[in-house]
Amino acid sequence: MKTVLALLALILLAGGAVAGDLDTLAAWLTGSFSSAAQAEADSNYFDIRLEMARIWSDRDDGVWIYVEQAVGTHLDRPYRQRVYRVTQVEDDLFKSAVYSLPDPEAAIGVWREAAPLSGISPDDLTLRAGCAVFLRKDELGAFAGGTVGRGCGSTLHGAVYAESEVFVTPERIESWDRGFDAEDEHIWGAELGPYVFLKAAH
Fold this sequence. Notes:
By secondary structure, the protein is α+β, with helices and mostly antiparallel strands. The protein is built from 3 helices and 12 strands, in the order αβαββββαβββββββ.
């Protein structure tokens, strides 16, 4: 009987650790990030700022995050605004679905608010089909992955589809977004490797 109870305790503890990985990933993904150090060291990269704020914390259908990305010299004019819904697919696999906002301009700067995007709901968002990022926890505890196949459509600069590769640790997010044409030729995005966004200390 003691052996059975001990095994049950181990199973419960293991399950709790696995379940906690979603909270860990969410904590690592949220905050203020900057590629300024990378841009200073390598002129191939720009100083980009990334703000990621938890939204709709009362929901139980995943972790929802508002994302705002802007050039460091034009923080009031972000060039990308999205909402991510992060869910746990398997013990060590996580999915970050990507959504567009109904009125991006109205959302500029809401990451500073106590309850960002409280005036809208997931029903107001538009899913960017095929653009989900799948992250797997590696042997060192980091989360790494990317999009799958050519399903994430893009028309930027004549591209047909986009790919993203992502690597997440407690201190940084590495993100390599690239667009390709129908012949799989690289059209836009960093050529040499991912942007490295260092997390600001609070």
